[in-house]
Amino acid sequence: MRGNNRVLVALTILFFLVGAHPLWADEIRVAAASNVTGAARALAERFEVETGHEVVLAFGSTGKHYAQIRNGAPFHAFLAADVERPRRLVEEGVAVDGSRFTYARGALVLWSPEPDYVDAAGRVLKEGSYRYLALANPRLAPYGRAARQVLEARGLWGATEGRRVMGENIAQTFQFVRTGNAELGFVAASQLKVMGGSGEGSCWRVPSSLHDPIDQQAVLIEDNQAAREFLAFVGSEQGRAVFREFGYEAP
Asked: What pTM was computed for the model?
């Protein structure tokens, strides 16, 4: 009986040491679009507390992540900034069929750190005396493609040639504006949310009618249980609530 008691005590201590977390906790490597930096970190922290799994996030442009994954980069899951790249990965047999879903819809904002610089209708794009306008590379970043569509809809794509400064991704684009290397630029609403509301300065939230929807999809790259659990958490109501907190619209 004493031996059984010792086993029971040992198991009890072990339970309190690990809490509700599984002993088989895994590391989940996630490629994530730059615009979801704040939301993804918040999601990862909550998921880690609930499950004990560790989420390792790598942020960058969706186009570059796509190329890396195709070339064998060891990611378990992909939080993209568009629909196209996750769809391609499934069609090419790189991602898990049936795992793709839309987790958020992004919002585009024209922003300047200067108060009263950007008007509420975006007329500054045509009437302003700015030297540089920042946007993400339309070939690599969905937010950059949306920015180009806005300029084309306003008949300003040609007129802004020579003044456009392109970031590799939306994070670099944001830094161009924040550091004053460009007076204004097209950024993600979520980036201003991280700064607190609209951040310092002035902004125009671009009407969604001026560009294609920025639907953002997730897809499973390597089929393991921990990664499936993380994507399920991202797509849950709790996960969607986090994205709403960071300025995303419901998909």
From this structure: 0.79
